[in-house]
Specification:
Elements (H helix, E strand, L loop, with lengths): L1 E5 L6 H10 L4 E4 L2 H8 L9 H14 L5 E4 L3 H13 L3 E16 L2 E15 L6
Helix pairs in contact: 3-4
């Protein structure tokens, strides 16, 4: 089973292990550089660039089969567009959940806050049901 990764950064080693053991994934495919460049740099002005996102859509169709996982994280509108596509073409869209750890230290009458995001698990996107 494939896991396609549609996000701007690489999976961490333990995320790869979780995908293999908990999701039954054999192969992980990441966006090619040209599509990662598009996904990572969507113009925030104007309408959603559907033409560019359709290149990502086409890659998903070419690289996956029905019932396979697609990890989708990014700009909200683009994420919704690709997740909706995945539902319509019987792919399983998922995302990574995180726990936020906050560490504060005092240095020279200043409080320095460090936020660390720790991967928890993969979760399926769900459709609203009436």
């Amino acid at each position: 089973m494939n896991l396609l990764v549609v996000m701007s950064h690489e999976l961490l080693d333990f995320q790869v292990e979780e995908a293999k053991f908990k999701l039954g994934v054999d192969t992980i495919k990441t966006l090619p550089d040209n599509l990662k460049q598009i996904w990572s740099n969507l113009n925030p002005k104007g309408e959603l660039p559907v033409g560019e996102l359709n290149l990502v859509r086409d890659w998903i169709l070419k690289e996956s089969y029905e019932g396979e996982y697609v990890l989708v994280q990014g700009e909200f509108g683009a994420t919704f567009y690709i997740v909706d596509f995945c539902f319509k073409y019987n792919r399983i869209p998922i995302y990574a959940t995180t726990a936020r750890k906050v560490e504060e230290t005092k240095v020279d009458n200043k409080v320095i806050t460090k936020r660390v995001f720790v991967h928890e698990n993969f979760r399926k996107y769900l459709r609203y049901k009436i």
